[in-house]
Amino acid sequence: MRAARAAVSAVGAIQELKSAREKAKSKIHQRRTRNTAIRIKVISMGDAGVGKSCLIKRYCEEKFVQKYIGTIGVDYGVKCVRLGGVDVRVNLWDLAGGNEYFEVRNEFYKDAQGCMLVYDVNNRASFAALDAWIDESAKYGAGSAVVVVAGNKTDVGRRAVSENEGRAWAQANGFLFFEVSAAHGAWVKAMFAAIFQRVLETLPNVTEAVLSGAQQMVAAENAAAKADYDEASADVYEGGKTTSPAPLQSRSRSSALYNR
């Protein structure tokens, strides 16, 4: 009887030891996973007041701040996405567009892997300034970054830069192109998904699972954005008269990722 009890006790001890080992392995794996998370640095560029901060806040917090408060120097946001079983941590650096912050923002161009270059479609001067922003970023260390050109404030309705003109400029420079609305959220997620995918494609040792996950994310966000546009377009005719919905993205933008 004692021998049987001892055998049972030994079996129980072995099982407890195995369980403890499995828990320890799990904790080690979790720590390794955290340590091997992919980190991406994306910066915003563009004139003051074009909506850079609002686009980042819309993406990170899914909200829009009505009252305009200009960025003082540099602001910061973080977005974590899970792709192919790996955490991708995106650090978004919002650089102030005012000339008075020139010395401050120039410290943050270095090592940027992605750039969101923003202009206001209702402000011709902000579009004309894009070349200067590209020159500045290249001079101070962001010359090899993936660039997405974002024509913001499509909801305002006082357009000074046509979609075709914005797209042509982006294509001529080899950049991605989107028209977006921070106020309504139109195509914001799709834009960020596109730049994340392009950045991941430039990084070494990124697994096929992660790249496939990024591709799926892009497809899903493009489909969702197009569905939102189609829904808005369906409301154009109300009560037998023509109304004017917010001028969201054009139907062709579902392929915006491949404009480069």
UniProtKB/TrEMBL annotation:
Biased composition (Polar residues): 241-260
Pfam families: Ras
Listed InterPro entries: P-loop_NTPase (IPR027417), Small_GTP-bd (IPR005225), Small_GTPase (IPR001806)
SMART domains: RAB, RAN, RAS, RHO
Region (Disordered): 236-260
GO terms assigned for molecular function: GTP binding; GTPase activity
Keywords, comma-separated and alphabetical: Nucleotide-binding
Protein origin, superkingdom: Eukaryota
Family annotation (PROSITE patterns): RAB (PS51419), RAS (PS51421)
Coiled coil: none
Protein name according to UniProt: Uncharacterized protein
Lineage: Eukaryota, Viridiplantae, Chlorophyta, Pyramimonadophyceae, Pyramimonadales
